[in-house]
């Protein structure tokens, strides 16, 4: 698929996709941004479609995923803002620092969502809640040894995430 094909898909489907996103999000600005992002994906990773309906099915699926990503980012952002507001002393940070923290939190959230549920739960209980292996094992109904395996698996994913971040920063 070349730029001309994407241009044709854009003219055939953009209005429909924008309307779909606007109904789903209730916000024209977000709908415009996500419609744009859907077509950018087609430029980055070209696809061909057998039919008009096939293109719409693909765009609808992409739009659904983009909405979920937007909602998750907003949940993470709200949690960050709530944590800042809960600080005993007024705490301010630069917009750049906030953006970096939100990007990191979003990446960690995405990593945790890719892990099996018990692995993600064990990691959060151990790191965030500072629970012992025995406490985590009792909570999850597994052995201490299994908790250590879960933690090792989660830490491996953290190291991979950190390596990707370091590669992107270079």
UniProtKB/TrEMBL annotation:
Coiled coil: none annotated. This is Sigma-70 family RNA polymerase sigma factor. GO terms for molecular function: DNA binding; sigma factor activity. Keywords: Sigma factor, Transcription, Transcription regulation. Pfam families: Sigma70_r2, Sigma70_r4_2. It comes from the Bacteria. It comes from Duganella alba. InterPro entries: RNA_pol_sigma-70-like (IPR039425), RNA_pol_sigma-70_dom (IPR014284), RNA_pol_sigma70_r2 (IPR007627), RNA_pol_sigma70_r4_t2 (IPR013249), RNA_pol_sigma_r2 (IPR013325), RNA_pol_sigma_r3/r4-like (IPR013324), WH-like_DNA-bd_sf (IPR036388). The keyword Repeat does not apply.
């Amino acid at each position: 698929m070349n730029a001309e094909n994407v241009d044709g898909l854009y003219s055939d489907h953009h209005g429909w996709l924008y309307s779909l996103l606007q109904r789903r999000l209730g916000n024209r600005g977000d709908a415009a941004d996500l419609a744009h992002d859907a077509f950018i994906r087609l430029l980055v990773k070209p696809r061909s479609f057998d039919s008009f309906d096939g293109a719409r099915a693909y765009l609808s699926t992409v739009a659904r995923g983009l909405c979920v990503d937007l909602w998750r980012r907003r949940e993470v952002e709200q949690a960050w803002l709530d944590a800042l507001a809960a600080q005993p002393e007024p705490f301010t940070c630069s917009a750049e620092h906030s953006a970096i923290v939100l990007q990191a939190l979003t990446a960690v959230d995405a990593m945790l969502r890719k892990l099996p549920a018990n692995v993600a739960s064990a990691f959060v209980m151990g790191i965030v809640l500072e629970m012992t292996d025995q406490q985590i094992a009792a909570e999850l109904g597994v052995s201490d040894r299994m908790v250590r395996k879960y933690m090792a698996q989660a830490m491996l994913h953290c190291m991979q995430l950190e390596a990707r971040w370091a590669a992107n920063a270079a």
